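Progress report, Aim 2. The chain analyzed during this reporting quarter is listed below.
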Amino acid sequence: MKDATIEIISEVKAHPNADRLDLVKILGFQCVTQKGLYKGGEKIVYIRPDAVLPLEHWTENYRKYSPKRIKAVKLREFWSEGIIVRLDQLPIDISDKEVGEDVSELIGVVHYEAPQPQDLQVKGYLPHGIGSTDEIRFENIIDELPFGSIVDVTLKYDGQSCSFYYNIDTDEFGVLGRNLEMKLEAVNNYTAHVDRYNIKNKLIAYCKEHGKSLCIRGESYGQGIQSSENNPHSQKPKGWVMFSVYNIKERKYHRKNDRFYFRNVAQELELPFVDIIESDVELTNELIQKYSIGIDKIEGKPFEGVVINHENGSFKVINKSYDSKK
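Predicted structure tokens for the chain:
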């Protein structure tokens, strides 16, 4: 996850509703800034939503408005996503860095991690080359989006990343959080799903039948998890839904139209999976904007965002209205 990168401002224009503000475009993002501070073509550091700033002098003014994490906010009817930092504001010289280069570590910016329960019994870090679950935001790949391709739109649950794997070579089953593996004997929101859905027996049998080492990835949700009045999933009984399937040996995700696409695997294993809001629709900018700023509820309930799945990958679209209230 790149939280802070060197970028070039692509456009600056006056805020239509505020004489003292500008709208500044970087990649697919937009920031609302004080008028006259930036110009098109300028090289800056762009720090994305969900980043946490270091407690240093150069961040003081930013932290007045984002004390815990940077998030999207609406200013005079226009969204501001992330912050822009001039190179001369930083305590170190990074002017020689290339456009697109990750400078998070250099300037002390880290990714926001929701507080985790303190009673978890951890086995270790993620095993077998399995990475953290973190979909890329569409704004970061605006020039690479496969417009015109056929996609599925799935609901993004607001909970905790929770995955289960079986490695045929080592005859090993495990339970994973976002960054850590849990001990199977632990009693917590992650391991509870093993018995709740009979996941261990189902996954081992499935992997052996197909000769695959798979990690089924999903979200744990329910009462006490990411509690918020705005989060409809935190008000439900505890549960789990699958949203992707990772092939451990081949080191790849199985994508849309693949035999082991998550919907196929979930149905075969009779396991719950994320809501598919729209299936086999064309990817357009209008589709993305619909879930980003066009609507703030699905079936009458607030939603964090959606994940758009295509045959070569996936990306997330965050509902800016929901994000601003977290």
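Residues 4-111 form a domain with the OB fold (Dihydrolipoamide Acetyltransferase, E2P) fold (CATH 2.40.50). The first strand starts at residue 4 and ends at 8. These observations will guide the mutagenesis work planned for the next reporting period.
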